Amino acid sequence: MTIAGLLRHGRPTLSYELFPPRTPAAEENLRATARLLLDTQPDFMSITYGASGTTRSTSRKVVQLLAEAHTVPPLAHLTCVDQSRAELIEVIEEYLEEDVKDFLALRGDPPRGTTTWRPHPDGLNYASQLVSLVHEVARAHGILDICVGVAAFPATHAMERWRQSTIDVLRYKEHAGASFAITQVFYEASQYTAMVEDARAQGIEMPIIPEVMPIVSAKRAARASELTGVPTPAELVSALEQAETDDAARAAGVAHAARLSRELLDAGAPGIHVITFNQSAAALELVDAMGLAGRSLP
Question: Is residue 109 predicted with pLDDT exceeding 50?
C-alpha cells in the first residue's frame, strides 16, 4: 500500500525521517536506531537525499534496508539540486527497480557554500516538474501505483508577503500529481492550521502531514535555526540552556514537541512525521507521549 493509501484510512499516521550515514560507525548506529523505531510500527520512514547527489548510494542503501528487511514503506527523497534530467531519471529508475513506490519530490536548497538557487543547465527548476517526471518515468516502465509527496511551508506561509505564493506553489505540485505533502519545520500549531485552511479554501485537497522535530540541546536548536531559517522558540532555547544534564535537556525538548504534536492532532492533522537525527531516544519518548505507537490499520 502506498502512503496515499495509508492516509485514506483516516487514523493518524506515524512516520520518521532518517539521514543517510556517512561512516561505518554511523551506519551501524542507523541500523540500531531503525530497529528500535520499527518496534513502534510506523506507517513509513523517509530517507533524505543529499544535495548534488552527495548521498545517492548511501540513501539507496537505507531504502533497500527498509524495503527488503521490513514491511514499512520507505519514502525516498529526490531533489533537483545540481542534477540533470537524465541523472534524475536514472535515480528514479534505480528506486523503481528496487520496488520503491513512494517518493518525496523536492526542489532542494542551494548546495552548501552558496545562497542562490540555480538549476542545472539540463535539469529542473521546480519541485512540480520533478513530481511530473517521477510519474512520467513510472508510466514509461508500466508502473502506475506510485505515490509522490511534496513539501509545504507553514512558517513561510505565516509571513504575509509569502502567504499566497506558498499556496500557489502547493497547488502547482498537486496539479502535477502530488498525493500528499509533508511540512518543513515550524513551532506553532496555528501556522499549520492557517496554511491548511487557506489550502482547502483554494481547492487543494491533498493531506498535509506536519513535521515535528524534538530538539534535545541548545546546540542543536542553534543548528536547526541555521539550517531551516525558522527561529527556535525562545522559551524552548531557555529550557535547553538551563537543563543541568543531557537527559533533562532531552526531556524539555520532547515535552515541547509533544505539546505541539497533541495540538496538531487535535486540530485534525492526518499524522505526525518525526525528525530523528538518526537517534532513537527522543523520537521514542515523543511517540510514547503522543500514544501513537503500536497501532494497526482498521
Answer: yes
The residue from 17, 174, 211, 285 that is catalytic is 17
pLDDT at 51 over 50: no
The candidate with the shortest Cα–Cα distance to 66, out of 49, 44, 39, is 44
**Best CA proximity match to 78, nearest among 173, 149, 2:** 149
- pLDDT tens digit sequence for 9-45: 878 999 999 988 878 888 888 888 988 998 898 999 9
Average pLDDT, the chain: 89
Locate 17 and state its grid cell: 525521517
CATH number at residue 124: 3.20.20.220
Q: Is residue 251 part of a domain?
A: no
Active site residue 174: no
Nearest to 275 by CA among 36, 45, 82: 45
Task: Establish if 242 belongs to a structural domain.
Answer: no
